[in-house]
Amino acid sequence: MEHLGREVEFEGNKFLVLTWEDIMSHVESLAEKIKESYAFDAIIGILRGGLFVANLLSDILGIDEVHPLGIRSYTDIEHRGEVKIYHWPSLPLMTGKKLLIVDDVSDEGKTLRAAVEKVVKPLGALTIKTAVLHVKPWTSFMPDYHVVTTSCWILYPWSRYESVRHLGKRLVNKMGIDGASRALSTLLSLDYERVINTLKESS
């Protein structure tokens, strides 16, 4: 599939900036791949980004049962942390069901692996498959369905201000809060005043 989004070289890193329209196009492509091969009873969306994708897939595929699962494998652009399950819902009995676990990206693969091995397998599902929008070339967990492989750092529309906070930490030291705010507002297509206020609040 053609790469959607805007690729930007910024401060020595290559970023892929995605709009909601890009996301919808990717989700529709992902849904087509899923429909061609399997019918699922329920979707488990990994918070936060995976739940956006899961809800859109639910609508397209007509799967009403969607469950959120909170797992994080890293918190910023420079340091990858340990996998933490921070929202482990009381899921209904899944014995005999066909489950689809959804996330936005398989980066190192730790998040999806933890979701499958630590959370979903013990539920006794008949089938467990995984789906993401993006896969990184170095991932240790290749999902059953994906749309695009990219080595870029992906900036999703649902985490714009998270990106401001993470990137801003080093940019403010380098170019000051005004320069950092202008650079980030351009990169992320955000209002300058909102960006600078976010940086002030997070400093």
Overall 3D geometry? elongated
Radius of gyration from the CA trace? 18 Å
Low-confidence stretches: none
N-to-C CA distance: 40 Å
Order of helices and strands: EEHEHEEEHEEEHH
Q: How helix-rich are the residues, as a percent range?
A: 40-55%
Count of alpha/pi helices:
5
Oligomer: single chain
Query: What would you call the structural class?
Result: alpha/beta
- The count of domains is 2
Mean pLDDT: 90
What name is given to the CATH topology of the largest domain? Rossmann fold
Strand content: 15-25%
CATH class designation of the largest domain? Alpha Beta
The major sheet is characterized as: 6 strands, mixed
Q: What is the annotated CATH architecture of the largest domain?
A: 3-Layer(aba) Sandwich
Q: Total strand count, please?
A: 9
Placed side by side, the strands forming the largest sheet appear as 5-4-3-6-7-8
Give a brief description:
Helices cover 40% and strands 25% of the residues.
Descriptive overview:
The structure is a single chain. The protein is of the alpha/beta class and 203 residues long. The protein has 2 domains: 14-155, 3-Layer(aba) Sandwich (Rossmann fold), CATH 3.40.50.2020; 159-202. It has helices at residues 20-37, 49-61, 110-120, 160-188, 192-202; strands spanning 6-10, 13-17, 42-47, 66-72, 84-87, 98-106, 127-135, 148-149, 153-155. The longest helix has 29 residues, at 160-188.
